[in-house]
Amino acid sequence: MGHLRDLPKSKMGIEIEEGKTGLVFKPNYGVVKGRGDQAKKLKAVAKKADGIILATDPDREGEAIAWHVMQLLGGSSDKYGRIVFHSITKEAVLEALTKPREIDMDLVNAQQARRVLDRLVGYKLSPVLWYKVRKGLSAGRVQSVAVRLIVEREREIEAFKSQEYWEIKVKLKSTQSDSFWVDLVRIGGKKVEVVSKNEAETIEADLKKADYEVGEVVRKERKRYPYPPFKTSTMQQAAANVLGWSSKKTMSVAQKLYELGKITYHRTDSLNLVPSALEEIRQFIKSEWGEEYLPKVARFYKTSGKVVAQEAHEAIRPTEMSLGTKNFKGEGQMASDQEKLYSLIWRRSIACQMAEAIYDTMKIVVVAKSKQDYQLQTLGEIEKFAGWRKLYSHETETILLPEVVKEEKLKMEKVETAQKFTQPPARYNDASLIKELEKRGIGRPSTYAPTISTIIVRRYIERIDKRFFPTAIGKAVANFLVANFPQELDYAFTAKMESDLDEIAKGKLEWMKMLSDFFGPFEKKVKDVEKNSKRVGVAAEGTGKECPDCKEGEVVIREGKFGRFYSCSRYPECKYTARMIEYAEGINCEKCGGRVVVKKTRTGRTFYGCENYPKCDYASWTRPLPHSDGTVERHKKLDGKGKMKN
User: Fold this and answer.
1) Could you tell me the CATH number of the domain that includes residue 15?
2) Between 139 and which of 63, 125, 243, 454 could a Cys-Cys bridge form, CB atoms 3.0 to 4.6 Å apart?
3) Cα 26–Cα 28–Cα 34 angle in degrees, nearest 5
4) Residue 468, pLDDT score
5) How many Å separate Cα 72 from the centre of its chain?
6) Average predicted confidence (pLDDT) for the chain
7) Domain span at residue 344?
8) Could you give the residue numbers annotated as active site?
């Protein structure tokens, strides 16, 4: 159910007063709209109860919810007991009930500090954006930094100049072996850099005349160790990469799995597995695959330089290891999605305690002499022992190389050249953005999904084909904030604030002092920017068409609250506007033959529908595939039983 009490939505809800050692912040909490009935029911049963157990989630947010419930219900603190468990199982709950404790106010204050901090930043920065950029905009502490990352990546892509280069490889054969390919890596002892067709053709001609022999053969045994169990960020990244899910969907499905008692708590930074889970995993591995797949001792993983075994939280794992992917069945409408995510979690949890995979690797270095000295090489490997990879269905890519010896003469069969171009950095997707935020120390497990959802809903970014593109509004906001609030939008500064919140949770930093140290200088900066900064316009995209109303301006594409629309470049002198319809080029509706239109949901998610809606109800989340006649291919999806359906 989440919070019963929170700051009001209609106003800042925080009183700020001068104290003896700094500013004092007093949040004015109230019952969340729509939760009044639940609050009344709780109060009624609480009056009749001899004791109240608070068993909310085992993190800062859960601790704060427990505290709010206690404040709402009232009565003596002796009446309350706070218990914590990381998995919803009979054993975990019963054990927790034997260890009731008081509310941990350090955790509560860390949550309050984050809530107040974000409210202060939002309420102070948003009016500045209204006045200096566009009315109706809003800013957030972590969200604005995430938008900055996406905007800066887009700038890198726009500024990127692709460079031509050529790859050259040679097909060789020895007298007693099959043919094999080698890549050109050095010319005259220097790393190869072929940047033109003429240069490639000159080298190709020279290589065709060269004498080849084996310069070196290197054999090594290589081990691949399993990945750690999932924490929140790595689970979100895996779901994005393997299943193509957004972070919001991943957390929604994980929440359901947790509520069903299938997995441990899914908002965690920990890589720890409790001794009972480790023992259960090791027994499962031994019985399923035998002793050779089981390391002599259990594996322990570290987070941020700490031994996680000493931490209170657990990694994300199944509550029952024997409940594997074969006999797990999801429940309700999300059954299929639950099975998919559970499978990822189960495999990762088992694999992290399995023996390492072992490969034989081989490198052949070939030297060629003609007008110049050339060095070519190839790499190959053979899987000797699957280890933890036994758990994953995969076709092992075995690259077999011939048995050759040093100084053995080789015959050239073919030389191939291929033109290539350097590529710009990839745009962020859910997985890479979360990874970047985590690497920089920005945000925490519970914040990644709502942060991404928020900046999509605010239309600062768009998710197109699972990649993030900044909108014109997003670029304008990021440019304005970076120019006028460089410290607040600095990555290291934002990470430092997250670190300070952690210190509050540990009881090492007073939350009022942290807020006071930030807010005093920040408020002065806001007033200075309001007074002295210049207004920033949102860039419009030209179409080259004349405005049909004034005949003087150009029709341009602008970003509005509800998406993109046509407008006159002379606005506000000319008030011309028109709805912008984006068609999926060359694709017709499979039901009625109308054109397919690119649309967006209220939350900013892209989908494809028919232009004749509501007469035609065709819709698809994925871009339809065109046939030669302009119709589309039906998208086949797996139903809950694993069968194909249209």
Assistant:
1) 3.40.50.140
2) 125
3) 155
4) 95
5) 36
6) 89
7) 232-351
8) 265
